[in-house]
Amino acid sequence: MSKQAENTGFHHALKVLPELCIGCTHCMKACPTEAIRVRDGLAEIFEDRCVDCGACYKACPASAIIIEQDDFEKIFDYRARVALLPSVLIGQFPSVIDAETIFSSLIQLGFTHIFEIDSVAEIVQEGYNNFIAEYQGEKPVISTFCPAIVRLIQVKFPSLVENLLMVKPPSDIAAISYRNRLKASGYAEEEIGLFYITPCASKIAAVKSPVGESGSPINGVINMEYLYNRTMKLIHSNQVKSGKYETGNLTDGGILWSLTRGEIRHQKGRCLAIDGIANVTHFLEDLEDAEESNIDFLELRACDESCAGGVLISGNRFLTVERLIGRAKKLPAFDIRRRPAPFDDEQFRLDQIKPRSMWKLTDDRGDALGMIAKQEELLKVLPGIDCAACGSPTCRALAEDIVFGRADLSWCVFLQETYIKNGKISIDEAEEINAGIWGKDRKQRSLSK
Amino acid sequence: MQLRYEIQEGDFVNAGKASSAVKGILKQLDVPAILIKRVVVALYEAEVNVVAHACRGEILVQIDSDMIHIVVQDSGPGIENIDRAMEEGFSTASKEVREMGFGAGMGLPNIKRNTDRMDISSQPGVGTRLELTNRLIV
Question: pTM to 2 decimals?
Answer without folding.
Answer: 0.89
